[in-house]
Amino acid sequence: MEDLLSKVRALIPVALAAGEIELKYFRQGTDIIDKADGSPVTIADHEAEKLIAEKLSELFPHIPMVGEESVAAGIIPDISGGTFWLVDPLDGTKEFITGNGDFTVNIALLENFIPVMGIIYTPVADELFYGAGNEAFMRLPGKPEQKISVRDIPAEGLTVVASKRHGDPEQMEDFLRGKKVAQTIARSSSLKFCSVAAGEADIYPRFGPTCEWDTAAGDAILRAAGGRVVTRNGHPLPYGKTEQKFLNPSFIAVSKG
Known about the structure:
Number of helices: 8
Strand content: 25-35%
CATH class of the largest domain: Alpha Beta
Number of domains: 2
Number of strands: 14
Largest sheet: 7 strands, mixed
CATH topology of the largest domain: Fructose-1,6-Bisphosphatase, Chain A, domain 1
């Protein structure tokens, strides 16, 4: 446990440095390239991932890294041992491009294909979330770092957090039918996991395509805060799916229950 916490804290400066790169391009603008799958990518994505990869290699040379942009370039290391990094250097590229600040730096460590440590940093808001083992923390500007945990579901009903741009409204409506819902809030990128981990929301259902680097850091933080991420059949969200190109099935991130 202490070893995991020391790892995650050692990586905080790396996440912050990647965020600085992204802020530079966010403010000055950058060219947009369409990847083979049609999704956008910018030089900020590439430079941030390059920095993260270099720092991870220096700090933990024996742990391979799976990064969104390196996978897009066809670079996939051997992760059969089950211990590897999953990195999304800029989660929420569409928000980045449109001038919305809801994009994040995501770094996660997996052991035995399970997310055990994660960092999520929001450069524009300068908000940091991280967790390892059974401890999760939040650091907001001008405030002391605080421990976070999921909450009990309020009597007035669920607060549901949903994606601003993605998902399947019909599946969402079907899933929530019969459940007592107090409100639904929209957030972008991996900040939806953070809302549940920090006790601001109770459930984040996702019906639509995501990849493992989109979820691993949030999954680790939510686990550390007392929640969990499961598939529609109730099993833990699986990782290391190289044959499926790291694509995730639909999942539900929940606080309790």
